[in-house]
Target: S-adenosyl-L-methionine-dependent methyltransferase
Amino acid sequence: MIDGRASRTALGAAVHRILHRRLDRPPIFDDPFAEALLDDEGRALLAARAAEPERSVRLRTTIALRSRLAEDGLAAAIDRGCRQYVLLGAGLDTLALRRPVADLRVFEVDHPATQAWKRQRLAAAGLGGPDGPIFVPVDFERDRLDQRLAEAGFDADAPAVFALLGVVPYVERAALLDTLRYVAARPAGCAEVTFDCSEPWESAAPPIRAAYRALADLAAAEGEPWVTSFTPEDLARDLAAVGFASVEDRGPAVLARVLAGLGSPLRPSPLGHVVTART
Model:
């Protein structure tokens, strides 16, 4: 991201959650608060994307589906007694406003500039307050995640669910694996993480390659270039190497079955994966 400026891809993700809620039937994920957080730039982007809804259908499907799967996993963990949820690269996520149980502690980890912007948007919308998220500003180039979470009151020995939604492509692989290693170092059975990622697009079929190149170019123009992707084989190897005991890798074929099971006619990204790894 451009130094000192809030993430524009976070804004784009919120816009596509709004479009999914408006346009897709049946919706697979419902975010009733995202629209209230938009600034003038966000409202302009929403209007532009709404004018050409077919151009965004695959992207908004990806964004809605990854959120649905992450929060389904959280709901199952809550049933097992988990009361800590850590959103890494939280952006304009609104789970804390839709809190499924009153005593769930939602830690939002993000770059200070993006987090300051989100807090302004929450205040402008009259949302948040003492029952909102626990904000954990982290500059990953300078700060230690474990230290910042501990300072915010995170209990490293208690069960926790982590999520990195729309984050992996923008993080260098070594830094990403360091973060995942921290999650995997929780006591056995005490942590899981859900994240989305993509297979390398450079060698895909020409139409798919062109679509991904266009998205990558847009992200790079916003100062947020794509730097990390995984083959399924590399992903399995790296997650085992950092210490996860079990991995559920939902690739395009599995995601298509998930959508069908939800009664949705939407189709997943041809290279996308949503992964859940557990200690």
